[in-house]
Queue: 3 jobs
Job 1
Amino acid sequence: MKRQRAFVDSVARLADPLCTAEGMELVHVEYQREPGGLTLRLYLDKPGGVTLDDCVDISRQLEDILDVHTQDAPPYRLEVSSPGLDRPVGKLNDFMRFMGHRAKIRLATAVQGRQNFTGVLAGVIEEMVQLQVDDETVSLNFKDISRARLINYNGER
């Protein structure tokens, strides 16, 4: 798990300047085993939305960069796409940016006997993500979040 996290962090460090140079935001990086094998998936966004041509352009450039800098990684399939309706939330400041939006959050370690939470993002206090679940606010440690996605995000900020 730590090696996988280190690989994702390395890919994000390599991809972020490329995306910024192309006028896009690197939203999230995933690396996981799927039925077809290992998949490295990057989600991009930009004002007005990401086009197929944007994804192809970043994918081609990134393949070359990753070939040079991640030679010891096992074979994987690279996918580049827009975030879509269930936009991933992976950066601490995104939990503030999308305050008021509904989200699903999965934790690596259980809190209150649960690992899965659905509610409205209510901010961040000292790296603790605040999630309004029904009539209570639950504090979730950012470092324990293994996956977070907005629910039916319509693209408004």
Note: The mean pLDDT is 90.
Job 2
Amino acid sequence: MNLSDNHQDSHASEETGRVVAAFGRRVLVEDREGARHSCMLSGRRLRPVCGDWVAWQRPVDDSDGLVTKIDPRKTELARPSRRGDREVLAANLSQVIIVAAPRPPPDPFLVDRYLAAAEMMGTAACIAYNKTDLDPAALSMDLAEFEALGYPVLRVSARDNTGMDELRHRLEAHTSILVGHSGVGKSSIINALLPDAELRTAALSAASGEGRHTTTASVLHRLPTGGELIDSPGVRDYAPPPIPVRNVGAGFREIAARQAGCRFSNCLHMEEPGCAVKEAVQSGEISARRYESYRRLVRLMEKLAPTP
């Protein structure tokens, strides 16, 4: 029997709300007045994520609310699932903030993949290089490589507040998500932007009934200076969701800009003759490291492609 059949009589009429945290079969929905409600899902196929707009039914007693439908999404940040298909992490974003730091050692290839995901979504992207209070000699990633491509790079320190005003300004009027390796200081940045962030998280735990599991979920915060910020759990690795290999170049703006110059319209910039991208790599106009990042992503998408 469908869950909605069991609980229909205990819920009021349907209204629109925003998912501000998701915990498997339970979500936290914010109503029009800003109050947050623990909700169950009306069916097993319903998979709302943080940032979703949903139709939900308010309970008429002390029970949970009921989410019945997910509104169409403007954007989706996704990755390959364990089964090799698409797993959505957050929805309705307009900006991706990629956090890196001198420690743990930064991985520019991971940064590339988040940037590629932002390009494919059509959202803004920015790199926040945290922990600049450490020895400047510890800088071990070529930030100028990203700046040359037009990506904003903010040098910040959540510890001594360096660059935090510039980050606040960039977050205004956006629904952003903080992403990056575990240990790069995303929580410290959140605490610097929202001094009561830990209290908010404790309140989420109480409202959701999920307790400690809240720390492993993405959570949407409304910033006092404007904008919304989703704090996502740290990762070991990331890749965009499976896509046709011919579309991978769209995630690398310097490669997409030279596509029209290739001899073949379906050039993958791998082994084909007359490739304008490879010529640009040889001349130094395209970073050899970024090109290798592109090639790695092409090979990954070939592995993830469904077998005919």
Note: Residues 25 and 45 are 10 Å apart (CA to CA).
Job 3
Amino acid sequence: MKKALSIFLFFLLIIHAIGQTTFEESLNEISKDISAKLLNKNLRKVVVLYVTDLNKTQTTAGKYIADIVSVNIVNDPGNFRVFDRENLPEIVEAKKLMDEGYIDANSAKELGKILAVDAILIGNYTVFSSTLKLTMKALDVENGFVAAASMKDLILTTDLGILLGINVNSGNSNLNRGFNNQPINSSEDYNNPGTVNPECKENNTGDYCFVNNTKYTLIVRLKRYTELTLDPGQTQCFHNQQARTYNYTIHEKGGVEYGQVYYSYGNAVKPFTRAGQISIEQCKSKTFTIK
């Protein structure tokens, strides 16, 4: 038995190591591809900006990816000079451009002059069931056009999953999400951002869903006159809610509400109750599983 367990653990370690190596090798490959294309156009002074999700949100995972790409380019034999992105906040003009969250042709040229670089590297990613699709582009600061581009599917690893705020080994197939990519409540998941109202940015709204994973019929309340009734196994959503933090209460249908405490009709036993806070984010959709 001990021998079998040892063999099993040994293979788990090998699989983990292979996953990590594959992820790092894939990042190295996309870095080499971009470097070769930049070298071919004699663009040697570069800055690697934060890699974002599809909503152009700066994330922990994106920063991690950008850092590795920066290191790979620094170590490339093409003798590149890479501007240290961590110094950007100290340059007021550069910080203003970065805070706008979008680098177009005009801002690329302006940022290029400020930093005295030849090219600006930007990137974004999309998370699928078992891979992270990474796209990197290099903008020529002389004209703002794309001078080089590369795309790669990176295998999701446990460590990358932690940065993304997901459990890679959970078997959950609903991973095409709009992440803000911070570690989140274990009962909370991000959904496909394509399901939210197209005017969410203009109206500063988002969606929030609750799934009832209990045996009770529950009432979920966000605001005094905003509530949902959920049968066991049912999912319902609050759509187009203002993006902010809300206090929520959940109680079993058939109870009587007194402040934050609920009591059953004609029964001294306190029914199912929950209370806490959730955060609705602009143009994002979340689902909270009530357990």
Note: The two ends are 36 Å apart (CA to CA).
